[in-house]
Amino acid sequence: MHPRGNLWNPDTADVSSRVIPIVAIIAGGVAVVYFSVLGVLWAFQERVLFQPPSRIPNTEVDAQRVTYRTADDVELFAYVVGDCSKASTVVLAFHGNADVARWFVPWAKRVQRETKACVVLPEYRGYAGIVGAPTYESSSLDARAAYSYVHDTLGVSAERIVFFGH
Fold first, then answer.
1. Distance between CA 146 and CA 126 in Å, rounded?
2. What is the rounded distance in angstroms from the CA atom of residue 118 to the CA atom of residue 124?
3. Residue 59 three-state SS
4. Which residue, among 63, 56, 70, 80, has the nearest Cα to 124 in the 3D structure?
5. For site-directed labelling of 31, which of 12, 21, 107, 153 has its Cα 20 to 30 A away?
6. Segment of 21-35, 38-52, 135-149 carrying the highest mean pLDDT
7. Phi/psi at 112 (nearest 5 deg)?
């Protein structure tokens, strides 16, 4: 008989004493890699989320361009399609992370034509030549400024404002 027992049926305690440390080392390594990737994504999440297009053709935009300021005094602009003073509904439409407001003017014209709503397409800082960098905080300030422009400057009541975004 072999000094360590039957070679065809090794002692399970002997096998588990060798396997458990290896599994623990592998699991620990996987956890370190996983949490490292999460940490990098967390640190750079705004750069991943906000991706302004780098090249935007300077073409004419068939909409009224208006300017307004944010609470931290950044000048922004928006395109207005339709007459917000006469429309029963004003759609405040925010574009996605790799878009710019001017690209949505044809869509806004269709919405205005089919629903008779006025459509306001605000732009964010860091997009379409506006100074600054887009962040969670700046996007919130920019959206509030667009709402204030529609509500306070254009005189549209809150009940008439519809929000759209993607």
1. 15
2. 20
3. coil
4. 70
5. 12
6. 135-149
7. -65, -45
Question: What percentage of residues in the chain have a pLDDT greater than 70?
Answer: 84
Q: Which residue has the tokens 């306001």?
A: 120
Which pair of tokens denotes residue 74?
A: 């950044």
pLDDT tens-digit map of 91-136? 999 998 889 999 999 999 999 999 999 999 999 999 998 999 899 9
Buried b (16+ CB within 10 A) or exposed e, 4-17: eeeeeeeeeeeeee
Residue 162's contacts (CB-CB under 8 Å, 6 or more residues apart) are 89, 90, 91, 92, 117
Q: Tell me which DSSP letter residue 56 carries.
A: -
